UniProtKB/TrEMBL annotation:
<keyword id="KW-0288">FMN</keyword>
<keyword id="KW-0521">NADP</keyword>
<feature type="domain" description="NADH:flavin oxidoreductase/NADH oxidase N-terminal">
    <location>
        <begin position="4"/>
        <end position="347"/>
    </location>
</feature>
<dbReference type="GO" id="GO:0050661">
    <property type="term" value="F:NADP binding"/>
</dbReference>
<dbReference type="Pfam" id="PF00724">
    <property type="entry name" value="Oxidored_FMN"/>
</dbReference>
<dbReference type="InterPro" id="IPR044152">
    <property type="entry name" value="YqjM-like"/>
</dbReference>
<keyword id="KW-0285">Flavoprotein</keyword>
<dbReference type="InterPro" id="IPR013785">
    <property type="entry name" value="Aldolase_TIM"/>
</dbReference>
<protein>
    <submittedName>
        <fullName>2,4-dienoyl-CoA reductase</fullName>
    </submittedName>
</protein>
<dbReference type="InterPro" id="IPR001155">
    <property type="entry name" value="OxRdtase_FMN_N"/>
</dbReference>
<keyword id="KW-0560">Oxidoreductase</keyword>
<dbReference type="GO" id="GO:0010181">
    <property type="term" value="F:FMN binding"/>
</dbReference>
<dbReference type="GO" id="GO:0003959">
    <property type="term" value="F:NADPH dehydrogenase activity"/>
</dbReference>
Length: 390
């Protein structure tokens, strides 16, 4: 049995395989509303054969956006556009997921493809909206970033309720899976990390206190959505900075998430900073984040997703066969080759040529493939894509 193409079931939601399109910010929304770009962008991944397709980090409030290009579900008018995306994904046989988020002290940045970093006076002159961010403490993310306003008790309640309202809208839009973003230095992860949380009340200090607000949000969202809807959480398993959040903290946190009804922990890393620091301990390479998914899975006894430069078909399969994770999350590799899943099925001999592709494509590709072989030519795309995947 090829585990990559084994079905996975979470609360009755069945995935046709264990290949997941990871959330990737496209920064292309308008006033928080998705555009035709998003419909095409996500539709192609479902056509490509993935089992679960995630819509990018979607803001729970207008001022919780990371950039002015982030999509949102903070108001009912945004549901229809998201509903179209979910419908297109599911019409191709995949399941639709959405990641919901508040940017916290990292909100109000420039779009990634326009330079990242804090908005400048020139950006504001060009019409970019600017706002003061919020966070656990009045500590800026990095040099040049605005200093966040610490959230009061009423502010915490408001953010929690915004997550709940957004999750409910996501269900109305037709999403099968909801993920809470608790990674990469955004609001919920910044409460967890001692690099960002310097509070002296019940929401800061000890590990138990720093976990309190993210767990309150989790509990409230779990109670607000149908019991049949799986709830995932993305974490940064480590900050990669001495004195920051560590894998041992993640194991403790994952156990608590499981108790609250979370179905899978999506294990990323990094994304948080403190003044004058860098991710000095970070060494990227193929599968560099997989050990964290493995440790959380083993010690917290919860399903995990593996991410991080997983490119080859055989490597992805080996992660699953070795019991290091339950799902494989792919990002940049899918941008390069949206049909990675179909190529993987062919690689493992599970299908004939193009028989599981959309039938509108399969007919053309079969005809092309046969013509190439008849002429003695090599089907260039197959070799090239597989070489790149390796």
């Amino acid at each position: 049995m090829v585990k990559l193409f084994e079905k996975a079931i979470f609360r009755g939601v069945e995935l046709r395989n264990r290949i997941v399109i990871s959330p990737m910010g496209m920064y292309s929304a308008e006033n928080g509303y998705v555009t035709p770009f998003h419909l095409v962008h996500y539709g192609k991944f479902a056509m490509g054969g993935a089992g679960l397709v995630f819509v990018e980090q979607t803001s729970v409030t207008r001022k919780g956006r990371i950039t002015n290009g982030d999509p949102g579900l903070w108001e009912d008018g945004q549901i229809d556009g998201m509903r179209q995306i979910a419908h297109v994904i599911k019409a191709q046989g995949a399941r639709a997921a959405i990641q919901i988020n508040h940017g916290g002290r990292k909100s109000g940045q420039q779009r990634a493809f326009r330079g990242n970093g804090p908005l400048t006076d020139r950006d504001i002159e060009m019409g970019e909206e600017v706002w003061d961010p919020v966070g656990p403490s009045d500590v800026a993310f990095s040099d040049g970033f605005r200093t966040p306003r610490p959230l009061s008790h009423d502010g915490l309640v408001g953010v929690r309720d915004a997550f709940v309202a957004t999750a409910r809208r996501a269900v109305l839009a037709g999403f099968d899976v909801i993920e809470l973003h608790m990674a990469h230095g955004y609001l919920l992860q910044s409460f967890l990390s001692p690099l960002a949380n310097f509070r002296t009340d019940d929401y800061g200090g000890s590990l138990e206190s720093r976990m309190r607000f993210p767990l309150e949000v989790t509990r409230a969202v779990r109670a607000a959505i149908p019991s049949s809807t799986p709830l995932f959480v993305r974490i940064s398993a480590t900050d990669w900075i001495d004195g920051g959040w560590e894998i041992e903290d993640s194991v403790v946190f994952a156990r608590r998430l499981k108790e609250l009804g979370v179905d899978l922990v999506d294990c990323s890393t990094g994304g948080n900073l403190r003044a004058g620091s860098t991710n000095a301990n970070l060494a990227r390479g193929p599968g560099y984040q997989v050990p964290f998914a493995e440790q959380v899975r083993r010690e917290a006894e919860i399903a995990t997703g593996a991410v991080g430069m997983i490119r080859s078909f055989d490597f992805a399969e080996r992660i699953l066969q070795d019991g290091r994770a339950d799902l494989i999350f792919l990002a940049r590799q899918m941008l390069f080759n949206p049909f990675w899943a179909h190529h993987a099925a062919e690689h493992f001999g599970l299908t004939g040529k193009f028989e599981d592709w959309p039938e509108q494509y399969g007919w053309w590709l079969t005809k092309w493939h046969g013509a190439l072989h008849a002429s003695g030519e090599s089907p260039l795309d197959e070799g090239r894509l597989r070489d790149a995947a390796e």
